[in-house]
Amino acid sequence: MADKLIIFDTTLRDGEQSPGASMTRDEKLRIARQLERLKVDVIEAGFAASSNGDFEAVQLIANSIKDSTICSLSRANDRDIARAAEALKGANRARIHTFIATSPLHMEKKLRMTPEQVLEQAKQSVRFARNLVGDIEFSPEDGYRSEVDFLCRVIEAVIDEGATTINVPDTVGYAVPELYGNFIKTLRERIPNSDKAIWSVHCHNDLGMAVANSLAGVKIGGARQVECTINGLGERAGNCSLEEVVMAVKTRRDYFGLDVGIDTQHIVAASRMVSQTTGFVVQPNKAVVGANAFAHASGIHQDGVLKARDTYEIMRAEDVGWTANKIVLGKLSGRNAFKQRLQELGVQLDSETEINAAFARFKELADRKSEIFDEDILALVSEDTVSSDADQYGFVSLAQHSETGERPHARIVFTDSGKEVVAEADGNGPVDASLKAIESHVQSGAEMVLYSVNAISGSTESQGEVTVRLQNSGRVVNGVGADPDIIVASAKAYLHALNKLQSKADRVAAQG
Ligand SMILES: [Zn+2]
After folding, report:
1. Does an H or E element contain 169, and which?
2. Separation of 203 CA from ligand 1 center, angstroms?
3. 71-75, 363-367, 376-380: range with lowest mean pLDDT
4. What is the CATH number of domain 393-502?
5. Which residues are CB-neighbours of 125 under 8 A, at least 6 positions away?
């Protein structure tokens, strides 16, 4: 029987650390449910000790998800570990993932600790964690740039203390495949008790090699767990992408000889959910989940594909969940059809009230747009999680005028803490005028660092999905909004970003 490759998803922890990608508790639960449907082995749900919000999210996911192991990150100290264990109490299977930096640079400059102190603290924390939870993962942060002899001592010691998974992060994305694979191989050969733990890889994509490095860690190094995120979401250039690693191992099973438990038919739905929730749009030429990943645009290819699919296709689009923009619902679709489609998309709404509210918005959209695609339904539902009663600002209506040769003017009505506000402004274009109108009342002073519009399902009849990234006193947030009218979508996205800026999120940053 072939070995199994464990898929450890960290979209909700490492992915969420990407500036602007922060998610609410409900958004995280929705994504966790999609990860469970994907049959992800381990879900890293957050870093429980970093903030109350993170603690609650880990707790909620641990209480709700039953098929995957739920993991919380934790620094190597008793307080963090106890907090993680508490958040994980309701989990069917819980894992604590504790980390401490072992590279000379990180120990000296960041931790201000000697190597002996780091070794001692690593041992103590794993010992402490092991008394609370049976499944312990240990990561030497910046492991790839650590000195091998010292790293061997640390890893041998934590395995002795009961660590069951050893993860070797390339925290800064410096590795190249052959060297990284050999690095893990060397560690496994030199550490006497290395066979008592499962070895894991965690690679960042700064040089575009996160997937290649992870696969080399598996093939050359013998690692049996890959840490990854949906769409490769993550800080800077991101993490290793789940869909690419999984499809590489499946498509080239002849070479890797490993089994993965992932139900690949839910990959595209998971990708869409993560991009619509975070506002991080997937590039069209992205492998597996990009809009062009399976399009055979060039004439020669089309001819080849028509004659025999496998001339140019190494994977089948339907195996990863592409449904080819199928029209799923329309104006006449009833509540049951809507509810059923939500279930098929992996969206679980928790109460009848939520379903009714979503269905009302669906009907409203169907009045304006004759064909409703899966993407529209997902956008509609993520908008539901996006707006909550606690929000300071809410969109009401918008009128704008633009004509060649004239300066565009917008008049917007929105709520500020429940009270309606009317604001007007001119701008370079209708979107600019609308956002300036909002800002004339709100006066957030936030700097806009990104604005993007994306047609959800391809044509001009589709909904526009707008992402607005705002920066204010060191915080970066993404707002998303969807509407058939892109100016309205822009205003919604801007208000969403402002709401996120209002909600305080002080948390401890983790690398790893
Ligand atoms: Zn990382």
Report:
1. strand 165-170
2. 7
3. 376-380
4. 3.30.160.270
5. 76, 77, 78, 81, 98, 100
Task: Tokens for 476, please give them.
Answer: 């970066």
CB-based burial of residue 339 (10 Å sphere; 0-12 exposed, 13-18 middle, 19+ buried)?
middle
Report pLDDT digits (tens) over 187-202. Answer: 999 999 999 999 999 9
- pLDDT band for 95, please (50, 70, 90 cuts): very high
User: What spacing in Å lies between the alpha carbon of 241 and ligand 1's midpoint?
Assistant: 12
Residues 6+ apart with CB under 8 A from 334: none
Residues with Cβ within 5 Å of ion ligand 1?
A: 14, 512
Which class in CATH covers the domain with range 6-278?
alpha beta
DSSP state of 405: T
**Mean pLDDT value across residues 449-463:** 84
Overall average pLDDT of the 12-41 stretch: 93
Q: Which residues make up the CATH 3.20.20.70 domain(s) of the chain? A: 6-278
State the average pLDDT for the chain. Answer: 90
Tell me how far the alpha carbon of residue 170 lies from the centroid of ligand 1, in angstroms. Answer: 8
Minimal CA–CA distance to 41: which of 233, 246, 276, 184? 246
Kindly give the distance from the C-alpha atom of residue 8 to the centroid of ligand 1, in angstroms, as a whole number. 12
